[in-house]
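Morning. Coffee machine broken again, so started the prediction first thing and wrote up yesterday's gels while waiting. Chain of 316 residues, entered below exactly as on the submission form.
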Amino acid sequence: MLMVEKTQVRNETAFMIMYTQPGPFTGHVMLIMMALMYTTAQAKIKNQCFEAFWYTHHLAFFWAIGLYTHATGCFVRGALPGEKVECLGYNTYRFTLISGSLYFGERVYREIRSRYQNTKIQSVLIHPSGTIELRMIKSGFKYLPGQWVFLQIPELSRFQWHPFTISSAPDDPFVSVHIRQVGDFTNALGERLGATLELVNQLNLDVKNGIAGQDARYEDFIDLTHSLRSEIPLIRIDGPYGAPAEDVFKSDMAVLIGTGIGVTPFSSILKNIYFVDSAVDSNFSYMQQKGKLGVLRKVHFIWINKCDQSESRMDC
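Came back before lunch.
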């Protein structure tokens, strides 16, 4: 049971307590921020308007400031028996100072590092269903199969970083990502690179009629690189970052299940297996090449796709 002395009761209305005191005021501000962040984190909103998700989630920094100042203004008070009433203050920062400093330092480091990881687009391929394949110059960039990166194109946005899974293998002479046009940023990127709706519809028609290249099963894309040679935008890479898919080489048997364009991490893994087997067959060092596959010996690959066989292999 708590004993409240008459001298501790302040003559204030509920409105004054809830909206003029630092504690309740910061609490309301934090609730509004959380409502915005939770709402834009919904899958439909995030997929259709990634920009809203990206910008509102940076409110977390201001939410942390509200958390640190939530108990200011002597809103929480206490006193031991026989002693005067004292403001208890706030001690939240003591529990988050180390982790918060590490996180803030990591964000600053990421921002600085990404500014120096500029690269150039080597080629731009447009696949049926409007999926764009960007092949970028490696320039010393190292990664493992199944990992992903953040990409930024300053010409489209100087602040937005969008995550994409790496679809190329580490032994490929380039770094590639497959981007499906489903949101504001990806649609703007497609329009900037010339992947218009008319071009996609024509490519789909050519593939179905079997006239896309000499063999529609293999030439089901259009290379847009030459038409953009002098206008290819600058691109920045932040990463790579780890993903569960890279643990596939820690088991002797792996079951890979992907749907639609979500198969991209497995594309990198399967390409890596192919390159290792090709190197072994070419009389390269057996142990050196097999070591890249860890203990993996068998792979079951299941790909669920809503498109028929006449359409592209990684676009639906």
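The radius of gyration is 27 Å. Going to sketch it on the whiteboard this afternoon.
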